[in-house]
Design a protein that fits this description.
DNA-binding, homodimer, 434 Repressor (Amino-terminal Domain), 13 helices, elongated, alpha/beta, Rossmann fold, 338 residues, 14 strands, 3 domains, six-stranded mixed sheet
Chain lengths: 338, 338
Amino acid sequence: MNIKDIAAYAGVAVSTVSRVINNHPDVSEDTRKKILTIIDEHGYIPNNSARNLKRTVSNNIGVLVKGIYNPFFAKIVQKIGEEINERGYSMILHYNHGDISDFDIASELIKEKKLRGLISLGGEFGESIEEKLAELEVPIIIVSAKISKNIDKSLFSSISIENEQAAFEAVDYLCSLGHRKIGIISPGYDDKSIGTLRYEGYKKALEHNQIEYNRQYLEIGRYTFESGFEAMERLLEKDLSLTAVFVISDIMAIGAAKAIMSRGMKIPEDISIIGFDGIDYTQFFHPSITTVDQPEESMAKQSVDLLYKLINNKCEHQHIVLNTKLLKRESCRCIFTE
Amino acid sequence: MNIKDIAAYAGVAVSTVSRVINNHPDVSEDTRKKILTIIDEHGYIPNNSARNLKRTVSNNIGVLVKGIYNPFFAKIVQKIGEEINERGYSMILHYNHGDISDFDIASELIKEKKLRGLISLGGEFGESIEEKLAELEVPIIIVSAKISKNIDKSLFSSISIENEQAAFEAVDYLCSLGHRKIGIISPGYDDKSIGTLRYEGYKKALEHNQIEYNRQYLEIGRYTFESGFEAMERLLEKDLSLTAVFVISDIMAIGAAKAIMSRGMKIPEDISIIGFDGIDYTQFFHPSITTVDQPEESMAKQSVDLLYKLINNKCEHQHIVLNTKLLKRESCRCIFTE
DNA sequence: ATCGGTACTGGTAACGTTTCCAATTTAGAA
DNA sequence: TTCTAAATTGGAAACGTTACCAGTACCGAT
């Protein structure tokens, strides 16, 4: 069952059927209706491979996810997938496991799969990819990734938040509650992930509150429950009499919270904790965890919106910065009120 | 840059280049090497649309997920994606939002995208789809779904667990700890999801322990944190002096646990709780939650393995049943030892 | 009646592969 | 040397669309 058959049934030329399928205007209402019913009767579905071959593109949008399992990304991916499907495209999802650079995977994927566009979640995009970026034939959108400051912004779009500022506010909030000894769990200062930005925010907040930065207060964790748990244990073992800890990702924050409670300590009575991302778990942990909420739905929706416009040449590359919100919950205690 | 160009550079016919690309044997080592280097030099990538058109199939494997957000599925999807990519295929991921039947979406997806095969996660597959199933040209694998007993098993493959038995063991464990008043949170007895099987296991376990089934002990929840939370609240309001509750999905269990603790009650001192699925988070909740662990990695791996074999006609449809394991953690208390 | 224009419709060459069949080369046997 | 079969290679017809270029039919205006 192909376009030729339909044309034969309808007694018209294939080109006319093609026009109907693609909603071209130059077809009389009568023939359009006739062809449409015949298509319907025979359950004809146009062959995508043929269309793609002819048009030299596909109907697929690639989504590249930095390969650590994180419910924050999982939810964004789901939403992105829905948005993509709604627009008649399909989502090709690819998890990237570190070894090869994010960008190389992305560009290979685009070429190989003749993707219409690509959304990359997480990871890092440095200046080194600038020329490669320029060679890309389809739009790419970078979501929630660390983007080098000096890179030419006209080559790609991005959706992000003010990581440093958001972290600043979180830590400043802790300070406002009277905390002075505030630990931090983060991938570290020389890491290439977005976490370093949050780490900078932490330092600025300390400075702003005239608290001296103490290298001892940092423990490294890499975006898993386990690493958050272990980092917190190391922090506690140092006996620094911390009263609070800022964890730059919720899943690590939950691991850290578990570590605290496993030692018989209480949240927030003994230690206050703030996470980052706003995943559901934080709300359903007990006590509920204060966190910096990222607008994941909006990030997903806007990235697809933007990509769609870019694909159809309806706009230029742009860099959208969304707002975060500090969700104040049960895990932070005010030291002054004791 | 297409196969013709490569052929011209190499001074051979396109058919020879094609043979090299597809690893056909009838090419001399010399020409093969020459062509390979030329392909490499020019960074030539075969056009998938053209190949697909010619071969009337694609390189895509569809993954259909029942559209509620559940970290259990999210993790399986990630693993499936990795396995698919490793085999040189791509994953087209589609979230299904209830309204249209799972199967209709699946078959439409297959036809429209010329998929090579499909893996469906969750949902329900009843007898009504039997003829439609028979008409499918590509293999389909049903993972973690409720499958009607009378359906012809030669038409599809499945990966599942012994839901009823696993639930039985969980509830029986609760009984063995001395619990007699055991609530249950489940999508209900007339629901079409896999939850009903677990509900049956619950009832069997009660019977086996000479505990009379009480309709009051059931509250309906539909696989979200919130619904677990709310169901537990309703359960608590009934004042049934429950000592334990079996929740047929971890995310609901976490919601329920939160509801319990929000009332100032303690787990497991006041109420014991068991979940189902084995998502990471149950381990990091405090107290850690006893749950029926499903082998998600294995489910993912085996489903892709099987699909791959089916695609290459290396085996027949089969129905794999994997083992679950009751992870005994902190959320269950033994009543006898007080 | 003729013309010009509009509204439709038809024919057909691509798009980049794969695969069958035919043609050529090669090697070994007679 | 000649012949045969095996090993390679080439040619060309599909696969199912789209989009360009023509062609036809019709209508109102001259």
